[in-house]
Amino acid sequence: MSAETEVTNTDNAVSAGDGASEVVAVETDKSDEALKDIESTVAEPDTADAEELEDDDEDSEDYLVEEGEIAGDYLEQLLDVLDFDGDIDLDVEGDRAVVSIDGGSDLAKLVGRKGEVLDALQELTRLAVQQSTGERSKLMLDVAGWRANRRSELSTLGIEAARRVLEGGEREELTPMTPFERKIVHDAVAKIDGVDSESTGVEPSRRVVVVKTP
Question: Tens digit of pLDDT for each residue in 96-133?
């Protein structure tokens, strides 16, 4: 092989090598661009999802505020008909609207024995909201702080029962309660390790039973 042929072959090899490098460089650039596209594609839905969730939360809260306003109007008319005095306060707690009536001297009559009148009034208010919105309402109504005080009492009852069961090992049945009251007790018992609670019986005699965890 002549020197000229060797040089030519070498040049060809170098050219081929440069060409391969260019191909690799182009492919690398394409890969980098593809990765960037993938990263941007992955990132965008996360941002969009977060914004969508935030919008959903705002819409949900706005709807609950609307529920509270409808309930407030209904209750104001009811208080006028009954000639009762009372201040109506609207709030949102979690996934439900909360309406409270405070300040009147006759409000105890709207609570009744063990909150029976209050429960009936709450259901009527929910129906009034449903008639206006077309949606079933989970609105919570309180009068003269009765539910707030009852919640505190039942939480204490549940914790004390749980501690007695934890120390003595014997199951304990509590007195019959409404679904609202039983939930408060269940939540209180759940805060104590080593015990559990369940509901037994049929309404209106359904009650909470506290047992030691196996």
Answer: 999 999 987 789 999 998 889 999 999 999 999 999 99
Sheet holding 96-102, edge to edge: 87-93, 96-102, 140-143
Q: Write the pLDDT tens digit of every residue in 7-50.
A: 344 444 444 444 444 433 444 444 455 444 434 433 444 555 55
Tell me which residue of 151, 74, 139, 146 sits closest to 110, measured CA to CA. Answer: 146
> What's the CA gap between 14 and 67, in Å, rounded?
79
CA–CA dist 155, 58 (Å, integer): 31
